[in-house]
Amino acid sequence: MKLQQGQKLLFIGDSVTDCERVKPEGEGLFGALGKGYVSNIDALLQSVYPELGIRIVNKGVNGNTVRDLEKRWKTDVLKQQPDWLSIMIGINDVWRQYDTPFIKDWHVYIDEYEETLRKLIKETSPHVKGIVLMAPFYIESNEQDAMRRAMDQYGLVVKQIAEEFNCIFVDTQAAFNDILRNLYSSSLAWDRVHPTATGHMILARAFLREINFDWNK
Amino acid sequence: MKLQQGQKLLFIGDSVTDCERVKPEGEGLFGALGKGYVSNIDALLQSVYPELGIRIVNKGVNGNTVRDLEKRWKTDVLKQQPDWLSIMIGINDVWRQYDTPFIKDWHVYIDEYEETLRKLIKETSPHVKGIVLMAPFYIESNEQDAMRRAMDQYGLVVKQIAEEFNCIFVDTQAAFNDILRNLYSSSLAWDRVHPTATGHMILARAFLREINFDWNK
Amino acid sequence: MKLQQGQKLLFIGDSVTDCERVKPEGEGLFGALGKGYVSNIDALLQSVYPELGIRIVNKGVNGNTVRDLEKRWKTDVLKQQPDWLSIMIGINDVWRQYDTPFIKDWHVYIDEYEETLRKLIKETSPHVKGIVLMAPFYIESNEQDAMRRAMDQYGLVVKQIAEEFNCIFVDTQAAFNDILRNLYSSSLAWDRVHPTATGHMILARAFLREINFDWNK
Amino acid sequence: MKLQQGQKLLFIGDSVTDCERVKPEGEGLFGALGKGYVSNIDALLQSVYPELGIRIVNKGVNGNTVRDLEKRWKTDVLKQQPDWLSIMIGINDVWRQYDTPFIKDWHVYIDEYEETLRKLIKETSPHVKGIVLMAPFYIESNEQDAMRRAMDQYGLVVKQIAEEFNCIFVDTQAAFNDILRNLYSSSLAWDRVHPTATGHMILARAFLREINFDWNK
Amino acid sequence: MKLQQGQKLLFIGDSVTDCERVKPEGEGLFGALGKGYVSNIDALLQSVYPELGIRIVNKGVNGNTVRDLEKRWKTDVLKQQPDWLSIMIGINDVWRQYDTPFIKDWHVYIDEYEETLRKLIKETSPHVKGIVLMAPFYIESNEQDAMRRAMDQYGLVVKQIAEEFNCIFVDTQAAFNDILRNLYSSSLAWDRVHPTATGHMILARAFLREINFDWNK
Amino acid sequence: MKLQQGQKLLFIGDSVTDCERVKPEGEGLFGALGKGYVSNIDALLQSVYPELGIRIVNKGVNGNTVRDLEKRWKTDVLKQQPDWLSIMIGINDVWRQYDTPFIKDWHVYIDEYEETLRKLIKETSPHVKGIVLMAPFYIESNEQDAMRRAMDQYGLVVKQIAEEFNCIFVDTQAAFNDILRNLYSSSLAWDRVHPTATGHMILARAFLREINFDWNK
Amino acid sequence: MKLQQGQKLLFIGDSVTDCERVKPEGEGLFGALGKGYVSNIDALLQSVYPELGIRIVNKGVNGNTVRDLEKRWKTDVLKQQPDWLSIMIGINDVWRQYDTPFIKDWHVYIDEYEETLRKLIKETSPHVKGIVLMAPFYIESNEQDAMRRAMDQYGLVVKQIAEEFNCIFVDTQAAFNDILRNLYSSSLAWDRVHPTATGHMILARAFLREINFDWNK
Amino acid sequence: MKLQQGQKLLFIGDSVTDCERVKPEGEGLFGALGKGYVSNIDALLQSVYPELGIRIVNKGVNGNTVRDLEKRWKTDVLKQQPDWLSIMIGINDVWRQYDTPFIKDWHVYIDEYEETLRKLIKETSPHVKGIVLMAPFYIESNEQDAMRRAMDQYGLVVKQIAEEFNCIFVDTQAAFNDILRNLYSSSLAWDRVHPTATGHMILARAFLREINFDWNK
Q1: Closest CB from A33, A181, A197 relative to G39
Q2: pLDDT tens for residues E20-57?
Q3: How far apart are alpha carbons E139 and E186 in whole angstroms?
Q4: Residue C81 is part of a domain; what is its CATH number?
Q5: pLDDT attached to residue E117
Q6: How far is the C-alpha of C124 from the C-alpha of H44, rounded, in Å?
Q7: In the predicted model, what is the mean pLDDT of residues E149-161?
Q8: Which of B26, G34, H187, H202 is deepest in the core (most CB within 10 A)?
Q9: For E86-116, how does the pLDDT look when each residue is reduced to its tens digit (9 = 90+)?
């Protein structure tokens, strides 16, 4: 297990991360971590490694793009002084290009996305023990679908930055693709974006596998 | 225009038809017709043909399949004595096979669908001046998508029954396909099923074209 | 069609324009354009001309008079940099003289109305590709009715300013008059001001006719 | 004053009478009489004639026509054993012909109106000390307005029945006409039907004058 | 009638005046004047003297004492520039001495009451055409009751100031005493302070009598 | 202490007893006993005599008169098989005569009150170990007040029945009178009926004194 | 993995099972399975074994004891025809003896508990492929705590019945005990009964281990 | 009785003190003192010593630790100028160490607790007539329980400071221990912290005994 005794792991992202987490803290009891994969990861870590005392913080905010992350980076990441940082961003950067195509102010194209994300990682990397980059995803099995193709490209950017800065990369799209061989996308997310309980567990498991979590410990 | 002075046109269907229409009446002022294509059709008819006095009734119910329609057919169709009847059903019959694949009690497979729909049309046909059959649709441009393929088959059943009983057929899928050449599905329906305002107007226009509505009158 | 590829069309006005549009943006999915004629125009444009990518923004605010428009003109019109601007204002300017006759501070008499509207058009005209002036209206068939007479005079002012600045003029009162020959005012607006779904479609159709929208395209 | 010590006066009618009265009782403290003319009449009677102990009951129901009154007559009138009965009905009977002209099931035409009202009065007359018939009204000053003309005819029916059965007749339309010489209809009722506080006071005063109420007592 | 064409009459006071009036304006349609005696006075004035165009404004605020009135006097009275001003204050000044006797900070004793009220009248008198002083009241028939005795003394202060500055004095306590000979206090106000609909009509009538309102005009 | 190990004590009455108790059970945790004197008695008994395991049940219902108690006596008293029964009823029987004097159907006059109460006690007495009769009260210090005089008479009836059937009598009026020498009625109950927290503690203490509760145990 | 292709697994129990599941169905999308261990089990099964198509149904009901299960057994278990059945009951049977000790009607003592549970298992066993018995638990580390001792005895009964009928036994208390060595009870359940997200994951993992679920598959 | 005529007694603390008291005042009628022991103390004092006119103020705030008290001490204690001050704090200081053990920022360890509390008492002591220190408590009968052991240590700190500054000490833990011999903790507080009505009465009685309150006066 890559996480060690007493470390603090902070998650930042969009609505897939947020999931009604308590604001502004993003930690505590009574559903403070929200109802999504962050809560699942916390519950699995505490169930299997209660002796490690890992502290989980959720700083997801609905509707965020990487442009929004940049604005709140100082407050919501740097000042929190996490040991580990996990980022999953990019879904809205792409989605707005497809659901509101005429409102171009709301789109974050791939160059801005890459540049901003790289800048944030570069700035933060020296201050933390490790960074996890979770690719944005689209729960659509057709690889030729226009939005799926775009999301795959954003995912590729994330993968490259992960390699560049020696981050852990979580291939969320691959995790969903595995399941999509057996289940139609609607059973994982009606809008192909916001996961059901099963969808969030898929994300949690993909994350935990990359940090060497051992279910059978 | 196929509708004539003082006729009553009743719409029945699922959530795409319902759209928060007032229950049980399904007619009147103050949004009683709901917020979807039925209200658009009414508004366009009254705007262009106010002298005809066409009476519109909305009997859509969220979540209905053709099996549900059969149960309320006597009350919600026959007792209403409409001159014209419009039916759009089948989306939930198919969708449940894809979003809750393990709950087979909720699926209405194509044989039951065809048999039930034919029975209802046969029984009702002698009592009305005309029937409009609107195909169920799936706002997905990929024709190889599993659910799209299934929906196309249900749509074909509707088309055949329309021919068999000399009904007006509205090819809603074709109407959406036209637009999907320019707009991605997310801008017409986040879940590819429940249309935005634009999606409902596409349905209304497809319907009105088949009854020879003349915008420029 | 007078609107061209990628243009932005902004509507400003009072409660007839507002119709629960989302604030402050006035654009986006999920009913962000409100439930009135602006949403209808958007839905009809996207249904028939999806390839043009027209961007619609709704900046109506309940209860506004031309005096209120002036206060928010910089923020809600000029800073938005629309290509086309549509204005429908004046109903409250007149109505307050009739429903709260003793609160004279709330009345905007015709001289102030004309002067303010002309000033706004003059200031904005150089910055946009086109302006549409929609006359204020009163859904009352009796031309001798005191408030109808007043509204007609305000409408005349709008028409004159339209000619003066070469704007497109939409004669909304004439559009309603057409329908009032067949339908009593109560079926279009209980208070003769706030239109039903049919009333809003009448406004949308009157607007679209003036910009050469082609339903049959 | 025509009302005497300890008598019970029951009002029945539609939404103009109802005004959020408590159901089913229609009497008691804490706004049980609603917020309209019935409450005004009660307040004025208790203020000026507290020694008489007049008991007021409000049995108005929103949306009622004379057809609806007939259905609940036994329960809401006869079983209540009032000494005096006041009826104001007919607005919806007429209005539905104008605001939802195509839903003819909802219309109560003048023959049915007259026949039903006469039957009810005839049946009740022997059991009460007095009946007050308040004409239905339409707060529209133009006598040539289609709905005003219709309402005047229904009012005439009421007046004739009042004479026939020796009831007290309250000419509510005349009371409003008096005020409409000075105030525009919108200041008394936005939809020309549901009165403002002033409109309800006009009704109360018209009623009280006919029963010889003395403000200066 | 003492009020003349086009004059503005402003009411200020505590919860008996407030009665859910709209804030901050205190005037307009749709119950903006609240549900108490102010609304009754407005309705009676418009019903009988519609030609005068009297403008009524309600600036009552729940829980106010004369100490609170002083704080908002500039904004809520002087800046409003009324022609006539009506003040009813003092109930809370007394009541807090009886319902929360140990919280002495909340009490306004008679010397402070008199001094403050006199100061406000003196300051305002030159700027208005007339002032109406309505005595505070306590709907308790036992003159020896401790709180009733206190309220009578505050009422006496009001009467003296009225004489001193030539204001119209409305003896609200006397008006209630009249009715209390026939009705027990509970039927006019459960807590002997907040009037029922009847209680508010008694206040309205007492006020209107002093300004020579003529019901039979 | 008159209550013994494991006994069940049931309270029945009106809104003073009810105080938002949970329905229908009237016992359990989380405020199930309501917020009034019943909850206070339970809390004091459990605090001082936890070893006795006294079970308290609250069957108060808002607005009840003795006529209402009779209707639900079988279900809410006899079937519950309490060891001890406490009854406080009569406030509404009297109050309705004073707050809604013209609605005589709602009044329960003293003969009916006495007869009904006696019948209930007679019927129940053989089945329980003891009955506590709490007098109805009116928190008004003036003994000449009309409603206080009436309540005192009802209280006298209760006292006589208590003697007749050898019940414990709790003189609630006397308990309040004690306090009224120092505190004005408004500080114990704004409407002189529904007690504040202090008022309920006065009732609890009066009750407990009669059953020989020992605070200092 | 003991569950096989297409099988239906039904959970029944109390509030720990219920967790706001949708009623009456207890299955479907959108949180229909509630927010507790049942949802976790479903999410983990679908994430790891999507090809098996296991159907999960949640029939937990807040506050239930084994006495309540018996009443709804026919409807909620037998008629559902599950392949596998999981039961966790007994917490309320014990808890009521400790939190409301005087209300003995609410207690289910160990003999009744054992007898009822055995009867249900005996009756159901022939109709299903397998039964899982999850012991009731109390998240308290002190084995000498009175309620913990009682719960352990109920758990022993469950274990014995499991052996008797060859059911799978899930030792939930042991699973919590493991964690309680590192975490204090408050961090798993404020009231030592209703688990946090972590507590539910501990239950899910304990269950899944007994059916040979393989996280690393 | 240690409290004397006209004195003001202020309570400060956490959620056990707060109990939905009105903010910011913390005094007045209508439940302004909350639903806990503060309200009980007030009710008992007014019931037995109404002639003393003791003024009670509640300044409890949910979730507070001694660190939070320090921040609002000036406003909520010193500026209020109480004669007597009662403090009960420390539960959250301890609890956070047990329910959210990994969020160390939220813990207030015993040294900081002692130092801060001593500083506040030292600073305030000269300005008041008396201070009551109520120990924090944990309604758990097992003295070896980890959190109970910690709470006992914090309680010891409070006792020592009380002796040091000559304050009245209320041993709340001892009061609960007395009851725990007969009742299990769940019947006094489901989470062993927030008392039921009985739990609050135990606190009130423990407090009142220390100030020589005489129930039988």
Answers
A1: A197
A2: 999 999 999 999 999 999 999 999 999 999 999 999 99
A3: 9
A4: 3.40.50.1110
A5: 98
A6: 73
A7: 98
A8: H202
A9: 999 999 999 999 999 999 999 999 999 999 9
Q: Which chain B residues are closer than 8 Å to D102 by Cβ?
A: 6, 8, 53-55
Nearest chain A residue to H96 by CA distance is A28
Touching subunits of A (3+ CB pairs, under 8 Å) are B, C, G, H
Secondary-structure percent of chain B, ordered helix, strand, coil, rounded to 5: 50, 10, 40
Q: What is the pLDDT of residues A84-115, one digit of tens each?
A: 999 999 999 999 999 999 999 999 999 999 99
Rounded average pLDDT over G93-98: 98
The answer to whether residue E1 is domain-embedded is no
Q: How confident is the model at residue B166 (pLDDT cuts 50, 70, 90)?
A: very high
User: Is H191 known to be catalytic?
Assistant: yes
Structure tokens at D132: 């007050």
Report whether the peptide linkage leading into residue D24 is cis, meaning its omega lies within 30 degrees of zero: yes
Is C99–D144 a contact, with Cβ atoms under 8 angstroms apart?
no
Q: Which domain holds residue E176?
A: 8-210
Beta bridge partners of F132: F86, F168
DSSP assignment of chain H equals ----TT-EEEEEESHHHHTT--TTT--SSTTTT-SSHHHHHHHHHHHH-GGG--EEEE---TT--HHHHHHHHHHHTGGG--SEEEEE--HHHHHHHHHSTT-GGG---HHHHHHHHHHHHHHHGGGSSEEEEEPP----S-TTSHHHHHHHHHHHHHHHHHHHTT-EEE-HHHHHHHHHTTS-GGGT-TTSSS--HHHHHHHHHHHHHHTT--TT-
A71 by Cβ neighbours in 10 Å (0-12 / 13-18 / 19+) ranks as exposed
**For chain A, how many structural domains are there in total?**
1
Is A194 catalytic? The answer is yes
- Secondary structure, 3-state, chain G: CCCCCCCEEEEEECHHHHCCCCCCCCCCCCCCCCCCHHHHHHHHHHHHCHHHCCEEEEEECCCCCHHHHHHHHHHHCHHHCCCEEEEECCHHHHHHHHHCCCCHHHCCCHHHHHHHHHHHHHHHHHHCCEEEEECCCCCCCCCCCHHHHHHHHHHHHHHHHHHHCCCEEECHHHHHHHHHCCCCHHHCCCCCCCCCHHHHHHHHHHHHHHCCCCCCC
Could you tell me which chain G residue has the CA closest to the CA of A32?
G197
H144 found inside a domain: yes
DSSP C187: G
Give, for all 217 residues of chain D, the pLDDT tens digit: 999 999 999 999 999 999 999 999 999 999 999 999 999 999 999 999 999 999 999 999 999 999 999 999 999 999 999 999 999 999 999 999 999 999 999 999 999 999 999 999 999 999 999 999 999 999 999 999 999 999 999 999 999 999 999 999 999 999 999 999 999 999 999 999 999 999 999 999 999 999 999 999 8
Residue D168: strand pairing partners: D132
Residues C104-124: tens digit of each pLDDT: 999 999 999 999 999 999 999
D120, two tokens: 């009810």
Write down the ipTM of this complex. Answer: 0.95
User: Rounded CA gap, B200 and B184, in Å?
Assistant: 16
Nearest CA in chain C to E27: C103
Residue B201 lies in a domain: yes
Task: Measure in Å the smallest separation between the Cα of B119 and chain C Cα atoms.
Answer: 34
Q: What percent of chain A has pLDDT over 90?
A: 99
Interface probe with C: pick from A103, A106, A107, most Cβ of C within 10 Å: A103
Chain F residues within 8 Å of chain H (Cβ atoms): 29-31, 33, 35, 39-40, 42-44, 46-48, 50-51, 179, 181-183, 187, 190, 196-198, 200-202, 205, 215-216
Would the CB atoms of H201 and F46 count as touching at under 8 Å? yes
